[in-house]
Amino acid sequence: MASVSEILNKVELSKADVIRLLSITEASEQEALLKKAYSVKEKTIGRNVYLRGLIEFSNCCRKNCLYCGIRSGNAKVTRYTLTDKEILKVVEFAFNNRFTGIVLQSGEQNNPDFTKRIKGLITGIKEATNPEFRITLSLGEQSFDTYKAWFDAGAQRYLLRIETSNEELYKRIHPDNELHLFKARLQSLEDIQKIGYQTGTGVMIGLPFQTIEDLANDLWFIKQRNIDMVGMGPYLEHAGTPLFRYKDSLLPLTERLNLSLRMIAVLRILMPYINIASTTALQTIVPMGREQGLMAGANVIMPNLTPGKYRGYYLLYDNKPCIDEEADECLDCLANRIKMVGEEIMYNDYGDSRHYKNRKHAADQ
Ligand code: SAH
Ligand code: SF4
User: Which of 1, 95, 124, 257 is the most core-located residue (most Cβ within 10 A)?
Assistant: First the structure.
C-alpha cells in the first residue's frame, strides 16, 4: 500500500487513496495531510477567509430527522420565528459590519405562505443593502418552482446537505416516511443546481453506523456532482433525539474533530477551487475548531448573527457555543482568532465559489 507521503504527491487520488488518508491515525501523517491541503488553498484561494452572516430565523420544522434537536417530535423545544423587521435589522447589522452576504437558515417549512414570505424578504434584503449583496438560503427541500421563485427574486446560493450519500445510512438516520426520502433530497439538490444557484451540500461526520468508506463516497459524491460550496462537520449528539441512544458507539470527540479536519483537507485537495465552510460544530468540540478548519483548507466562516434571545432555541445538537452572546461580541473575538492563525478576512470581495465561476465560464463557451 502507498504511504501517505506518496499519496500526497500524486496528481490524482483514487478512492483507495482517499480511504487511506481518511484513516490516518499517526499525528505526523495528519499534519502532512493538512499541510498539503493548506498549500493547495494558498495557491487557489490564498490565506483568505470569507464571512457570511448566519441568521437562524425560525426553529419551526415539519421534519423529524432522528439526529436533530429541533425535530418536530421534540416537544421540549420552544418554537420561535423572527419577524421580517427583526431579520432586516440583522441584515442591516451585517451590511454595516462589511459582510458581503448572509445565510438565511430555518427548520423546513413548506407551504405557499412561506414561499411568499421568503420571496418578499429577499426583495426587502436587496433593498436594504444592494442588488449584489449575496443571499444564501438553507431552507430544506422545496419544489422546483419555489426554488426558482427565490432564485428569480435574487437569492444566489443554496445550501442543502445530503447528510450522507449512502442511501441505506440515510434511511437509518431518518424516519421511514414520505417526508424523509433520500430520492427527494437528491432531486432537490439537482433542482437547485439546474436553476443556477451556487450549489452547496455537505454531510455529517461520525454518524452512528457510518464507515470511512461511506465518507470517502461522500467526497466522491461531492466531486462527481460538481458542487460549488461545502459545509460539513462532526455529528454531535442531542439528548432529545432518537439517535442519542447510540452515543456510546460513536468516535470520541477529538477523533471526530480530527476526522472532520481530514475530510476538509482531502476535499480541498480533490476540489481546489470550491468554497468550504468551517462549521460551528467544529467549534463545539474545541474553541479553536473553526480556525483549525481554516488550517485544513476551509475558507468560509459563518458567524452566527441570530439575536441573542433566540439562540438558546436553535439547538441542533448539545453544547452549541456562543448561545449567550450577541453577534458583535462574537465578531471581535473571531476577527482576532482568524488573524492569529495567519489568515485575513476579505471584506471587499463577495467570495463567490471560484469553482462555480469556472463551471459557468465553461458552460458559456
Ligand atoms: N432544515 C434545513 C436547515 C437547517 S438544519 C435542513 O435540514 O436542510 C442544517 C444542518 O444541520 C443539517 O443539514 C444537518 O447536517 C445539521 N445538523 C442537524 N443536526 C445535527 C447534529 N446533531 N449534529 C451535527 N449537525 C447537525
Ligand atoms: Fe428540520 Fe433540518 Fe433539523 Fe431535519 S435537520 S429536523 S429538516 S431543522
Answer: 257
109, 113, 123: which is closest to 58 by C-alpha? 109
279-293 pLDDT per residue, tens: 999 999 998 999 999
Rounded to two decimals, what is the model's pTM?
0.97
CATH number at residue 169: 3.20.20.70
Q: Which of 60, 62, 67, 70 to mutate to test the pocket of ligand 2 (most atoms within 8 A of CB)?
A: 70
Residues 169-225 have pLDDT tens digits of 999 999 999 999 999 999 999 999 999 999 999 999 999 999 999 999 999 999 999
Judge contact between 138 and 104, C-beta under 8 A: yes
182: domain range? 4-364
Give the ligand 1 atom nearest the CA of 108: 1
Helix residue ranges per DSSP H, the chain: 4-8, 15-22, 27-44, 84-96, 112-128, 144-153, 167-172, 182-195, 212-224, 253-270, 280-285, 289-295, 308-311, 327-340, 354-364
Q: For a substitution probing ligand 2, which of 65, 105, 109, 174 has the most ligand atoms within 8 Å of its CB?
A: 65
